[in-house]
Design a protein that fits this description.
Layout: E1 4-10, E2 25-29, H1 33-38, E3 43-45, E4 48-49, H2 52-59, E5 63-68, H3 79-91, E6 95-100, H4 123-143, E7 150-153, H5 173-192, E8 200-205, H6 211-223, E9 230-236, H7 243-261, E10 275-276, E11 281-284, E12 289-292
Parallel strand pairs: 1-9, 2-5, 2-10, 3-12, 5-6, 6-7, 7-8, 8-9
Antiparallel strand pairs: 3-4, 11-12
């Protein structure tokens, strides 16, 4: 198994994006667009109203991410909204990443709440639910002609996912065995439903600047024979972010790559491909959402 490292830094600024040729990926999470538009929001650049996906393509983006919530309040970020967004992104030639939270709302290091419909499932049925839901969404994406480039199984899962069954916040081997089974259920669903093309899979932590925790976590997961393609590590500094933070994070990631690859139970890791995830600055007024492309430049 070969694993690629991706690092995301959310930044905000003004100006055009200067990105190198692929495989460098430049983009961000734009899941809120339907909700903004439903509230009357419009997107402008240099005073001219634009479709946000057209604007992204013009600005140099080649990659977007959509988060998936099972049955969210209001319906935003569910499967149906995601399928519609995928058509708009695909029409502009943008690669698509899916981010499964396996929750009805945000999943992050402080909360990994199971979907309400899954709360009383046995562990075996929970494994099946992860497989079935992942397969349902991925196969629907393929069926409509918008296959995802990458699928993220879980969001910021440094403490595990689908608590309490999938919680993994210690060295307790039983915790990691359960988490490994849940992850493998989602990952297998992606592989089984990827169709003719290859869909990359990602495991994602929010520990881009934390070498020690990142290495510890991936060593634990790899010991469970979890098979995935991409390590996703994000670091968020809000609107005051500067690229020195990104450079520092990427340096740590290179060190982590070396440490992980020397573990006897770990795969061989190739040169990392860096994912730069800039974020549009959005100011929403009663009827208008102003979208300003960020200033971005490659580090390497």
């Amino acid at each position: 198994m070969s694993v690629t490292l991706l690092c995301g830094l959310l930044v905000a600024g003004i100006g055009a994006i200067n990105v190198p040729a692929e495989p460098f990926l430049c983009g961000g999470d734009v899941s809120e667009i339907p909700e903004v538009e439903a509230g009357g929001g419009k997107y402008f650049y240099n005073g001219k109203e634009e479709d946000p996906f057209v604007l992204m393509k013009k600005a140099g983006w080649n990659f977007v991410r959509f988060r998936i919530w099972n049955q969210p309040k209001g319906g935003w970020c569910d499967k149906d909204h995601t399928l519609k967004l995928a058509k708009r992104a695909h029409a502009q030639g943008l690669k698509i990443s899916l981010d499964f939270h396996y929750s009805d709302w945000w999943a992050d290091p402080g909360k990994q709440t199971k979907p309400a419909a899954w709360k009383d499932l046995s562990f075996e049925d929970l494994e099946k639910a992860v497989y079935d839901y992942t397969a349902e969404v991925v196969s629907a994406m393929n069926k409509q002609g918008t296959p995802p480039y990458m699928v993220q199984v879980g969001n910021e899962i440094v403490g595990g996912m689908l608590w309490p069954e999938g919680k993994a916040n210690s060295n307790n081997p039983e915790q990691w065995e359960r988490l490994g089974k849940l992850l493998n259920s989602g990952l297998k669903a992606v592989r089984d439903n990827q169709g003719k093309g290859k869909i990359l899979t990602m495991l994602h932590l929010d520990r881009g600047g934390d070498n020690k925790t990142s290495v510890w976590w991936f060593d634990k997961v790899l010991a469970q024979k979890v098979e995935f393609d991409t390590i996703g590590l994000s670091t968020i500094r809000g609107g005051t972010a500067r690229f020195k933070h990104f450079k520092r994070t990427s340096t740590i990631l290179r060190s982590a790559t070396k440490k992980i690859s020397t573990s006897p139970r770990s795969p061989t890791l190739g040169d990392p491909t860096m994912l730069l995830a800039p974020m549009f600055t959005m100011a929403i007024k009663p009827k208008v959402a102003f979208l300003t492309p960020p200033r971005a430049r490659p580090i390497f």
